[in-house]
Amino acid sequence: MHELGVVFYVIKDVANVAVENKVSTVNSVTLEIGEVSGIVHDYLIDCWNWARKKEPCVENAELKIETIDAVTFCENCEKNYPTVAYGKICPHCGSDKTYLVTGNEFMIKEIAVPED
Amino acid sequence: MANVRIIDVHQGVFEANDLVAAEVRAINKNNGTFMLNVMASPGSGKTTLLMATLKELIKINPEIKIGVMEADIDASVDAEKIATLGGNVRSIQVHTGGECAMDAQMALEAINEFDTKDLDLLILENVGNLVCPAETDTGADCKVVLLSVPEGDDKPLKYPLMFEVANIVLITKIDTMSFFNFDREAVVKNIRMRNPNASIIFLSAKTGEGMTEWTNYLVSKLITA
Ligand SMILES: Nc1nc2c(ncn2[C@@H]2O[C@H](COP(=O)(O)OP(=O)(O)O)[C@@H](O)[C@H]2O)c(=O)[nH]1
Ligand SMILES: [Mg+2]
Ligand SMILES: [Zn+2]
């Protein structure tokens, strides 16, 4: 739903990194996206392929996505468990005193540029 | 094809939630709506305080338009209670789908469904929990944290982030202070260690003590929204 907005944000950040590193073209951009961040990967890629044409330095850049597993921590028994399988309730002890440790990320991991 | 070089970008990190939160803020600003995010442990008196606060605000200005988004677990009960206030108060139940806190996306969906255009004040009763809601920006203009006297004056030390992000901390149920070994100065000191700027108000929804100070705080925020 916000994928297009997110894409513009990424393009702006990547363009800044390109300027800082004195490169004029980017081959690929790798994102790290949490499993429960709510971002739809296919839709994000569609948005990317549309929006990149508007920014010369990323015009030909491929978007790569790496997923970060969602992990929840239980305050009661102090164990971690996979969020997607069990949600809010701890599978070890049944407590709902749990919180998300990883899985809500949205990061630009790295970009690849031509070697000079 | 030429070889490639990898540039680490980790500093360009952002959370998608922040973008959505900015959108929520923009919508509220455009509509002249002031949004409160109320956070606390279960049973700390959120619903009771909300009811008392709404009654006071309606007394001050009968025309005021208020919306309440209920995300707490006992939400269906609370939404019914709030509906009994009638007048210009509307409430909506929001479903966090098993998540431990409201996020900006849920707030945005609720705002769209709710049609908040005409509202002066939009209150979110967040999920009862002192950990997750602190981490997630909902797009609210003001974060209110409740700490009830029975929970103890050392709570800010155990849940530091919640008190760090608060704009205002309400110490609730102060009518019970003599039953619990609750030290007024200690709690202020513990909050100040985490947050030198937050407003702190002591009140009781039961006896009405401190309620005027709290409603005045709100009214001053509403005027400038
Ligand atoms: N003594 C006293 N009890 C209160 C006060 N406010 C709420 N309570 C009681 O605390 C309990 C939980 O209140 P509620 O508003 O449902 O808390 P919530 O779970 O945070 O919404 C109820 O039994 C209330 O009657 C207060 O100011 N003084
Ligand atoms: Mg409640
Ligand atoms: Zn557990």
Overview of the molecule:
The complex is a heterodimer of chains A (116) and B (225). Chain A is an alpha+beta fold and 116 residues long. Chain A has a domain at 3-68 and 103-112: hypothetical protein PF0899 fold (2-Layer Sandwich), CATH 3.30.2320. Chain A has helices at residues 3-20, 41-51, 83-86, and strands at 28-34, 62-68, 71-74, 80-82, 98-102, 106-114. In chain A, helix 1 (3-20) crosses helix 2. The termini of chain A are far apart. Chain B has a 7-stranded parallel sheet with strand order 4-3-5-2-6-7-8, with helices on both faces. Chain B is α/β, with parallel strands linked by helices and 225 residues long. Chain B has one domain (16-224): 3-Layer(aba) Sandwich (Rossmann fold), CATH 3.40.50.300. Chain B contains 9 helices and 8 strands. In chain B, strand 7 (168-172), helix 8 and strand 8 form a beta-alpha-beta unit. Helix content of chain B is 40%, strand content 19%. The interface between A and B is medium-sized, with 36 and 27 residues. Strand 6 (106-114) of chain A pairs antiparallel with strand 1 of chain B. Zinc ion binds at residues 74, 76-77, 79, 90, 92-93, 95 of chain A. Residues 40, 42-48, 128, 172-173, 175-176, 204-206 of chain B line the site of guanosine-5'-diphosphate.
Assign the structural class of chain B, choosing from mainly alpha, mainly beta, alpha/beta, alpha+beta, or little secondary structure. alpha/beta
- Structural class based on helices, strands and sheet pairing of chain A: alpha+beta
Fill in the CATH topology of chain B: Rossmann fold
> Biggest sheet of chain B, strands in spatial order?
4-3-5-2-6-7-8
- What kind of sheet is the major sheet of chain B? 7 strands, parallel
CATH top-level class of chain B: Alpha Beta
Average pLDDT metric of chain B: 86
